[in-house]
Fold:
Amino acid sequence: MEKRAITHSANALLPGRGFDEEKLVAPRQAMVTFFSRVAVPPLQTERVPFELAAGRVLAEDVFADDDYPSVGRSAMDGFAVRAASTPGSFDIAGDVRMGFSEVSLAPGRAVRIPTGGALPDGADAVVPIEDATVSGATVRIAQRVDPRENVIEPGADMRRGERILTAGRRIGAPHVGLFATLGATEVTVYRQPLVGVLSSGDEIVAPSQRPRPGEVRDSNRYAIAASLQAMGATVAHFPTLADEEETFDRGLRAALDECDAIAVTGGSSVGERDRLPAAVAALGEPGVVVHGLRVKPGKPLLLGAAGGKPILGLPGNPTSSLMMLEAVASPIVAALTGAPIVASSVRARLGEPLRSRLGWTWYVPVALGDEPGAPVAHPLPLRSFSVSLTARADGYVVMDERDDRWAAGTIVTVYRFIGS
Structure:
């Protein structure tokens, strides 16, 4: 089993020379390959109070329990009347109070009614206050009105038994308001996946430590954790994986045993100290599914699984790590959460010409300028080692395999980083 997984992962490798670029796959192909070999287990569900459901993913359809509104209501401030009696003069028989519906209307009379007030029995239309002339206890209506004019019909918003929301929708503020309207004080949502986050490398130190020459503060794990949380996952941090083989393998397995998936930064390339490919292969079937993409930055991305649990092997370079998670691997997280993850985007005009490599996919961070008119996207120098690059960027553009040059002024889509 281990040998087969390692052989699969080595398909894109040249012994002693790194990746075989002719065998690297494009991002879309990587996702197809992953999901063809890894069946992500069905998500469990749980019931949560509706006021705590924002950001969660709905796990069952929601149906209206009644007609909304349940009775006819006025769409205007004015007078409730019988349409057949108009035009004419009417005695004002009283007022409709909000929240009450005990008023009834006798022939030849009108009732004051506020917007949203329940239509009295015997009334079938509402005359706006600006179309009525009041004189003492009498109101004059000069024009004929039609039945149901300015009336909100029962069930005009929702009908009893109507499906209002479908499972798989990420819950937002409007949906929480809907649950309150329906009296759905608890809702069924998918359980948030627990994703373990690990950094790897003997050079990694905690953010609270002052690094010595050759050491770096662990920024990757916190950027990745924040991105995963914005995608709807719960994050668990695990100790940094040392480069020593036995310690690395033991730490990786311990994290996978506790979580629904794990994300590891560093150790996914082809260097002598890059332990991740062999360690993933040793965890069980299918092991390494994809290793190496035809992308910049992020070529050493590794996608694998064991026991149905996804393993995201992200490059150690900060820009590459975050870019590969958000631009490529996010559909795997989406499968765990139960809903698509869609980055917000904006159309912009390219400020400077941009070149890439034909046949490759490039993810280029950009800053959005304040120039008049349409937003202007200014490409930033693509340095995958840079910790500050993605923080300086307002998003990124994608040059796919068919693109190798864009002229200044080209209209592009700028994808925002998730959660920003």
User: Anything to note?
Assistant: The chain has eight helices and 30 strands. Residues 1-10 have pLDDT under 50 and may be disordered.
